[in-house]
Structure formats: C-alpha cells, structure tokens
UniProtKB/TrEMBL annotation, chain B:
Protein name: MoxR family ATPase
Lineage: Bacteria, Bacillati, Actinomycetota, Actinomycetes, Streptosporangiales
Domain AAA+ ATPase span(s) in chain numbering: 34-209
Highest taxon of source: Bacteria
Pfam families to which the protein is assigned, alphabetical: AAA_5 (PF07728)
InterPro entries found in the cross-reference section: AAA+_ATPase, ATPase_dyneun-rel_AAA, CbbQ/NirQ/NorQ/GpvN, P-loop_NTPase
Organism: Nonomuraea corallina
Length: 350, 288
C-alpha cells in the first residue's frame, strides 16, 4: 500500500504521511481484498480535490490493474521558452546595478514605454519596480478592537462592572480593517509579450507587499495560478518559477473562457479585480461580455490595464476591449513605470 | 446503532428516501467508524446538505446546523455570554448588597449564562449530527478555528474552562468550491467529491421523493436535466432543482414534460436570467 501512495505522490497527488496513515486506518474497517473497498478507502483519504481524482484513477488502475509504472505528469516542451529571456534580463539587472542611475535619467525612464527600452534600461525599470512598496485599500474585518466610538463591547463592560461592583462605564469596540484582496490577471499572449515580463514583475511586487491578499493568474489560452511561484523574495527566481508554470506563452487570448473558469472555480467577491491585457480577444466577445458582467457583480472594483492606453490617440477598439468597457471602473495605462506607480496608487485607495 | 457495512448503510439511507451510491456510502460508513468529519464537495444541489439531514434522521440524532457566511465569527459559531442576563444578575446582587467581586465573577460566568452556538451545542449534545454548511463562504480565518474544534472536539472558554465532547458528533462539512479550502482542514476529514447522479439514479430519486410522479415524467425530467447540464449554463440544475421542477410540474397536473409547461416551470430548475434566456432562446427544451 505504501508503494501505491508513493506512486500517487509521483503523479502529483499531495498524499502526505498523515493521509497515508488515514488510508491504512480506513482499510481496517473495510475489506482490503476487495478492489472497490481499497479504491474508496484511498480516494476518500488521499485525495483533496477534484483535480486529484483523475490522477488517482490513473494510478489506481496502473498500480492494482497490472502495469505498475506510472509516469508523473509529462513535462511539456516549449514552456521553457521564457526562461532564456529571464536569464538574460538577470544579466542586464547586474549591468544596471553597475551603472547607478542619476535622478534625471530615472525620471525620463519612468515615463518611457518599456517595450521600447534597451535591455539595460529595462533592467533598471525592473529594479525600481521591485522596490515599489504598494499600499493597499482596506476593508472591514471580522475582528474587533476597543475604541472610543463604536458598538457596545459587552464582554469588557461586564468585566469592568465586576471590578467596580457597578456598571460605571460602557466600553465600546469597532471592527479592525484588513487589506482588500486583489486578483490580477496577466495576459501572456503573443501581442502582450513586450510587456509580459514587466507585468509579472509588477505582480511580484504586489504579492510581496500583500502576500495574503493578492492572487495572480496568467491568462492566454489557459488560466494558470501563479501566486505561489511569485512568493519568492528574489524577483529573478520568482519569474523563473512562474515562467515554467505558464503553459501557453505567446499564444492567443481567450479571456472570456478563462474568466468563466475563474468564476466557476474561484471567487473575486469583495476583491479588486485587475485585468492586464490589450484586449485582442480570440474567443467570442459575447462570452467575454457576460463573464465581465459576472465579474463586475462579484468584485468590489474592476480595473483594466492596457499598455496602449498610454498613448493619446488610443481608442478602445479591439473586440475584447469594447465588450469589457461597460463593466470597468477604470481603464488605465500600463506601459511605463509611472503608469504602474499610478496603478499602485489606485490599489491603495480603491 | 451498529452499521456493519457500506451495503447496510445504502439500505438504511434508502429507507430514509436517500439513494446513495457505493462511494458515498463508503464515505459515510468510514466517517462513522473512524469518527472523522466528512468533507463533501461538489456543485450546488447535488445533495450534500440533504445527506446530513438524512443521516440525522437515520441515527435518531438531532441535526445541528452551522450555515457559514462571510464575517461569521466565534460569537456566532461557538458561544456567547448572555449579556442582558449577566447585567440583571449584577444589578440584583447589588441590590442584595453583595459586593464581593470574586463571588460575583464566579456567579456570572456560570454555564447558565452561556449561550451555546452550533459548534458548542454539537459538542454538548450526544449523539448529534453537526452540519457545517458551505464552509467556502466563511473567511479563511474561520477555517483555522473550525480546524481547532474538529481536531480534538474541545472548546476552551477562558472564563469557564474546557468543554469536551465525550463522543464526538458526526460531522459533515460541505463546500460548493467557490474557494479553495485550506488543506489542513481537509486533511482532518474524509474527502468526497459528489457528482450529479447518473440518469438511472436520478430517475430513481425522482420516483422515490415524488410519489405522485409517473415513470414517464421522471425519465423526461431527468433527460431534460442532463441536457441542461451539458448546455454550458452559469448554474446547471442539481438534483435539488430537478426535484423542485418535478414538484412544480406535478402541481400543474402535468403527466409529461411538454414544451409549454416546461417553459412555464423553468424557474424551478434554473436560477439565473441568463440561463433561462439561453435555454429558451436555443430551444433546448425541445426533444428531438
């Protein structure tokens, strides 16, 4: 049985020691000689979500159905494409550090389109992006703190009354606040590739400043969760990590479908949803429209970051942009460091 | 009650009008035997809450339900002190000339001034079935302290001491998966993913729960429900919705599912305006 658990782990099911113990205990109550009993005992104790179930079924059939060898999820080729460019920019970053920036050069850089920078200039922008300490708008939490004004704190009033022998003073309390959640969607399709790295670095800065209240997904042809990878302190390592995770670099964008998947599996309730994309939607704009409507009903605010918005003659003409526009609280630029600073301000006060 | 096998459990659940398959029966069987909470996940309306209710009926134990929502806190889930009665008691003591704070303190923090909320009530009621419904709607901080209660079935109250359940309640935790629940909580539980029932099972459930329903109508409703579930809706109908839909049709005296009556009663099965429009607009109720 432990061999089976090892096979499961190799296939990506997080069946730890405690779960394995649970599996063995469950078998004590069932008939370990009956395949159906073993199947259910394992499934109930070793799996933790619907994603685990197909893997579990594969392993079960491979292990108890004869053939024992089960390969882990096949590493897909082509996903490493981005790693090279991240490594390059890491070089560039060191170059940037070697040449300290003067104030005026920095000021000029702040407003330039990152897609048109040299490697060294971009590295410098990325270094400044890493130093961005983003504030965050706050929302009421369910915890309380004592305060002069607020609702009656019954527990403390009673405590005081006990000490003094009479109800002398009414104690009050109010809710504490906590950072409002941000859900960021980064478009990694082909048309966004000049901005993808900068956006992911911005995402890294957001995750680093509010790790518990930030969720990041890449969108393109598949919705991919990136938050865990972005928790690394070092931006280079974090980017390496997420570059390996993203399966659909430089493909098309099917934002409607991916938002739909997001809305059915996760939630943006009460959050600030931020979509970073140029709106070149390959899928059905009507689907995008309905999903944007759902997102807008759930989220506290919906912001759209479009790199092309930074130019004066920009018109939201792409099909995706037009479908989304009615549901946005704001459409903001995302082409330069200054634009990201402005976005950060918005997240602090949304 | 001694339930010796999952098969026996299927039979008992059937007697209480709940049709379970092998997987679910094994899950419940193990939860009872191993005294572990059962974590039921699945789309809305597949019968998660109903299972807990049926289980309570079957075990002859009261069902204690904690409906989760955003902002749920300890005072609503665990216990709270009865402030009004505590104050009255203090006033009465004052009038009677009792001023010894120690004595007063002992008195107002007695068990009789404690209001038991669902979690505490479940520990104090034996036997009982505790249903923690829609855990995904509570904040993630709440999970942490639910985990604490479910790990050793004790609640410590600073003013009173620790309350321990001699026999832990049967616990069913449900989630619609609108949010990923923390792994530590799931690890304490037996995890079961509940699917929509198969066609035959759905027909059987409709007939079992709606005695007035004919086999023909049940088959037509189940078939329509399958079609709706494939139709890419915001909220596909669960078994709870098909039961409501059947009831609505029976109320109108329908013997079979004709398109007009189906359209008129669709609100029992679909709960989003977009879905109703999509289904009617694409003629998904017509059989071909």
């Amino acid at each position: 049985m432990t061999g089976f658990v090892r096979t499961l782990r190799a296939a990506g099911v997080a069946a730890d020691h405690e779960r394995a113990q649970g599996f063995l205990r469950a078998l004590e109550h069932l008939d370990a000689g009956v395949p159906g009993d073993v199947y259910w005992a394992g499934r109930l104790t070793l799996c933790a979500g619907p994603d685990d179930l197909p893997r579990y079924d594969r392993c079960f059939h491979a292990y108890f159905g004869g053939a024992r060898a089960v390969a882990g999820p096949a590493a897909t080729a082509s996903v490493h494409r981005y790693t090279a460019s991240v490594a390059d920019s890491a070089e560039g970053e060191r170059d940037g550090e070697a040449a300290p920036a003067t104030a005026s050069r920095t000021e000029v850089l702040r407003h330039r389109d990152v897609a048109r920078l040299t490697e060294a200039e971009r590295a410098e922008v990325h270094r400044m992006l890493a130093m961005l300490r983003a504030g965050r708008a706050r929302r009421r939490s369910r915890r309380y703190e004592s305060a002069h004004r607020g609702v009656l704190d019954r527990r403390r009033t009673i405590r005081d009354a006990l000490k003094k022998g009479e109800v002398a003073l009414l104690r009050r309390r109010r809710h504490t606040t906590r950072p409002r959640r941000v859900v960021l969607f980064v478009d990694v399709s082909g048309s966004m590739s000049p901005y993808a790295e900068t956006l992911l670095r911005f995402a890294h800065a957001l995750v680093r400043s509010e790790p518990r209240a930030t969720r990041v997904f890449s969108v393109g042809t598949r919705l991919t969760a990136l938050t865990a990878g972005l928790r690394h302190r070092d931006p280079g390592t974090a980017l390496d990590e997420v570059s390996r995770t993203i399966p659909d670099w430089s493909g098309g964008t099917r934002l409607g479908e991916e938002l739909k998947e997001f809305l059915s599996r996760h939630s943006a309730r009460g959050a600030i949803a931020v979509i970073a994309s140029d709106g070149w939607e390959r899928g059905d704009p009507e689907l995008l429209r309905t999903q944007m409507a759902r997102l807008a009903r759930q989220a506290h605010r919906v912001l759209w970051v479009n790199p092309h918005k930074g130019y004066e003659d920009y018109q939201p003409l792409t099909g995706g942009m037009r479908a989304a526009l009615p549901y946005l609280d704001a459409l903001v630029a995302g082409h330069s460091l200054a634009a990201y600073e402005e976005l950060t301000e918005r997240l602090a006060h949304a | 009650m001694d339930i010796e096998s999952p098969e026996k459990l299927i039979e008992l659940l059937d007697r209480h009008a709940y049709l379970a398959d092998d997987g679910l029966a094994t899950a419940v069987f193990l939860a009872l035997r191993m005294r572990r909470p059962l974590f039921l996940e699945g789309e809305a309306g597949v019968g998660k809450t109903e299972l807990a209710k049926t289980l309570a009926g079957l075990l002859g134990a009261p069902l204690i339900r904690l409906q989760c929502y955003e902002g749920l806190d300890a005072a609503q889930a665990l216990y709270d002190w009865d402030f009004a009665r505590q104050l009255l008691h203090l006033k009465a003591a004052e009038a009677a000339g009792v001023t010894d704070p120690r004595r007063l303190e002992g008195e107002i923090y007695e068990r009789r001034f404690l209001l038991a909320r669902p979690l505490l009530k479940a520990l104090e009621t034996q036997p009982s079935v505790l249903l923690v419904d829609e855990i995904d709607r509570a904040d993630d901080e709440f999970e942490a302290f639910l985990l604490e209660v479910l790990s050793d079935f004790t609640i410590s109250i600073p003013e009173l001491g620790t309350i321990r359940a001699e026999t832990p309640p049967v616990v069913v935790v449900t989630s619609n998966r609108t949010r990923e629940v923390h792994d530590a909580l799931k690890r304490r539980c037996l995890y079961h993913w509940l699917e929509h029932p198969s066609f035959d099972r759905e027909v059987a459930i409709l007939l079992r729960r709606q005695p007035a329903c004919t086999e023909a109508l049940a088959r037509q409703v189940a078939e329509a429900a399958e079609r709706l579930r494939r139709a890419d809706l915001v909220k596909p109908p669960g078994i709870a919705e098909t039961l409501d839909w059947t009831e609505a049709l029976l109320t109108l005296g329908a013997q079979e599912l004709d398109p007009d009556r189906a359209a008129a009663t669709l609100g029992a099965a679909l709960k989003y305006r977009e879905d109703v429009e999509h289904v009617l607009g694409n003629g998904l109720l017509r059989r071909d």
